[in-house]
Amino acid sequence: MTQDIWLATHPYLQPLADLGAGVDAVASEGSFGCANIPKWNDYIDDFHTGVPLLHSSAIKLDLSSVEAGLVTLAQRLSSKALPRGLAEECHTLHSQLLSTPDAPHRAIARLLDKESAGSEPHAVIQYLGWSVLAYYLRPLVSSFYSWRDEERWLRNYCPTCGALPAMAQLTGSDPGRLRMLSCGRCQTRWRYRRTACPFCENVNDQRLGVLAVEGEAGLRIDYCEACQGYIKTYNGEGNETLLLADWTSIHLDVAASDRGLKRFANSLYHL
Questions:
Q1: Binning pLDDT at 50, 70 and 90, where does residue 215 land?
Q2: Quick one: angle between helices 123-147 and 86-97, nearest 10?
Q3: Chosen CATH of 153-271 out of 3.90.1310.10, 3.30.70.80, 3.90.1670.10, 3.40.50.300
């Protein structure tokens, strides 16, 4: 399934698609740089004890291209025809990033700071910052996936950045179906237990439920009665890029909220 086909049946998602296209246009110029691949053996002890990659003192990244890329992205989007005053917010952010020499560094550092979860940055800087970081981290995320032993993680938070999962995917066929979780920030995917709440880790099947969503290409809402948390799940294969993008199923977040369910994962689309 293509994005155009999806948007034809979900036209209310077009503004988010246009925003993403603006990010892709800047990314195509190579403005965000690429992370170098570390020596994985330097990180293995932290991996085994559950320290996410970006929170490990063993991993050193040069984020100067990310900081410069954030400034460029804010500037470019400020001149685009964006909905809900976003262009003006991007212009304001661009001015703030130029206000002091270390402003871009502080902005990116805050996004990566595991201690700042209780005081989230502004929605626009979260979206733009993680958009740049996701592109920058792509080669690292790919290499990390190839290196790590999925059976040694199986935790309910992202092995790369430490975020709670935004989405899940069921792959394969019974009795060997696998469940993957997907990060809405850095786009890492990782293995998790097939039947367990990825938030409170409840394993009582009788308290785990499914809300089917008719006509949504295999998408559904998995929820937990113990914590009232939910996770959007793609029950299929072949359309991961589209259906695990989080923004393409934002209407499922609305449906879950209407039913009193809670999204524990941070969303980049509060803007």
A1: confident
A2: 80
A3: 3.90.1670.10
C-alpha dihedral, 80 to 243 to 267 to 189, nearest 10°: -120
Q: How far apart are CA 81 and CA 88, in angstroms?
A: 10
Complete edge-to-edge strand list for the sheet that includes strand 230-235? 189-192, 178-182, 167-171, 230-235, 219-224, 208-212
Alpha helices, DSSP H only, in 187-238?
A: none
190-213 burial code (b ≥16 CB/10 A, e <16): bbbeeebbbbeebeeeeebeeeeb
Q: Is the pTM of this model over 0.90?
A: yes
Residue type, 133: L
CB 253 within 8 A of CB 211: no
Structure tokens at 86: 């976003």
The least confident of 77-81, 90-94, 153-157, 260-264 is 77-81
Q: Which two tokens stand for residue 136?
A: 């920058």
For residue 217, which of 231, 199, 232 has the smallest C-alpha distance? 232
